[in-house]
Amino acid sequence: MRNHRPRVSVVLPAFNEEGYIRxxxxxxxxQTFPDFELILLDDGSTDDTWKIMQSYQDSRxxxxxxxxxxxTKALNYGLRISRGDYIARMxxxxxSLPKRLERQVEFxxxxxxxxxxxxxxxxxxxxxxxRYVRCFPxxxxxxxxxxxxxxxxxxxxxxxxxVVIEKVGGYNESLSDLEDLELWLRAAxxxxxxxxxxxxxxxxxxDPKHSYFQSMHGSYRRVRQSIRLNGRAIRQLNLxxxxxxxxxxxxxxxxxxxxxxxxxxxxxxxxxTESPWPGTGLAAELPAHENAHE
Length: 294
Fold this sequence. Notes:
The structure is a single chain. 35% of the residues are buried. This protein has one domain: Spore Coat Polysaccharide Biosynthesis Protein SpsA, Chain A, CATH 3.90.550.10. It is an alpha/beta fold. Helix 8 (216-236) runs antiparallel to helix 9 (242-253). It has helices at residues 21-29, 49-54, 71-81, 100-110, 140-146, 162-168, 179-187, 216-236, 242-253, 259-268, 286-292, and strands spanning 8-14, 36-42, 61-65, 86-89, 95-96, 114-119, 121-125, 130-135, 159-161, 192-196, 202-206, 273-276. It has eleven helices and twelve strands. It is globular, with a radius of gyration of 18 Å. Strand 1, helix 1 (21-29) and strand 2 (36-42) form a beta-alpha-beta unit. It has a seven-stranded mixed beta sheet, with helices on both faces.
């Protein structure tokens, strides 16, 4: 297996994810598309994350204990050692449904002019106590317009051609968050984007107790970086000037809106649609939900 060059490299960094890592790894090992390598990167965890990684005996897994280098440096290390023509991102606290890799590979194989593809996904939002299906804009021009207001690709669900990294470089290691948005802006002059429509192929589990971004310092830093990067997108992509007003309104007023109005704003202004998550939201039910869409 080590001499075989896989078509897909799945890059999964983790720091202190002992409560989530097994769910994430199992979801990749259960993919219907078999030709992949799973690169597990332990970013200096002080809990049992590394021990859980070592419990797997699967020839498709490559695991590296890095020491504490930080998220973007861990990502870039995974990119450097990846062997696949396609790179798939995976977060240590998320879950991919069984056909995710299969459908993304099929799409990139059949659409040679597209290099970066995300998916529709289930979002479990512990902060707002909501569960829903989120569908981002699916076409390149719509995604480019959305880059001026938010991040229209779910980072944990993205797959891209390795040539993207070879052309524009890896993630910006000076950023502590929004590293994906910054990478997409560097890629935009050279490559086209897409998102797969329903059914959902990924589960984004957002736990506010587990999220760095819910600290006051983290949220303030994220807002500042968001203003800077979204503003850069407006200039770089020659988006309409009124996007600056929309960006300002998002920063000043969006957090004050009730959830119902936020969903309306995301649909009308940003082009993202959200629909109810069927059933009780248990992870074990999700493959059945996926099949129900077909």
